[in-house]
Fold this sequence. Notes:
The protein has helices at residues 22-26, 44-57, 66-79, 122-127, 150-161, 204-215, 227-232, 263-276, and strands spanning 2-5, 8-11, 29-37, 40-41, 85-92, 110-117, 129-135, 166-171, 174-178, 182-187, 190-193, 220-222, 235-240, 244-251, 254-255. It is an alpha+beta fold and 277 residues long.
Amino acid sequence: MIILLDDQLVSRRQAQVDIEDRGYQFGDGIYEVIRVYEGNMYCLDPHVNRFMKSAEEIRLSLPFSSERLKDLLQELVSHNRLQEGNVYLQASRGTAPRTHAFPSKNTQPNIVAYTMKAPRPFEALKKGIQAITDEDIRWLRCDIKSLNLLGAVLAKQNAVDRGCQEAILHRDGRVTEGSSTNVFIVQDGQLYTHPANHLILHGITRQVVLNIAHELNIPVNEKVTSVDKLFQADEVFITSTTMEVTPVVSIDGRPVGEGKPGPITRRLQEAFEKQIG
Ligand code: PDD
């Protein structure tokens, strides 16, 4: 398999992680996941822009421009002839003797990207998924797509342990987002989702859905909702690069609405399908 290592395409075997890589030791780095449909990276510009923004927020300087990064990712996808799947991209602050503060100025970030074949999640899109609610124990800069994913890992595992596919997180009863997705609630024909502040990742699929809702004249409220409202919702769905617009049909074992994907979710799914096609 061919991967991107810094600015070179090399064989996977040539890429090694040093024991003092700061991503490995501290989670000191950032990442992106980009979906590939029919050989094309979907929403490449917003993904690369968010990557650049995350880098800036953690004061990591990348050795290339967005334009150059897009070209390199394009070469990677073409070289591997990826048709349906994902590109994973990450940058760590580099390799340096272990100490919490930033390493010396000449330390170069370690950048890797690779492709993964993956079909679209057709079954989840059609039938919906089951979710749990869980406390949001993550840090207060969830807008940065950082490599520190322990809060998300533990929440997702709590969901899996209960036979579910996603954990819907809340801080003191205020719904934030899913462990790896954004959460939307439909109530009386209107959409509700957490505002894009420091408590959630500003999902690219979330933004696509907000734009679609606007086009379809579905009113949108970027407002915090409570766990109580989540349970009373007519419909609930999650969004992400890999899960697209996936209905949530039960939460903590209780059915959402009629316990099957609702009509507004279906309309948004259909419109999303047209965008990617
Ligand atoms: N997860 N919220 C969190 C915490 C996420 O990790 C993600 C993405 C999203 C959705 O963002 P987007 O629509 O830009 O993919 C929301 C990726 C896919 C992952 O970690 O695998």
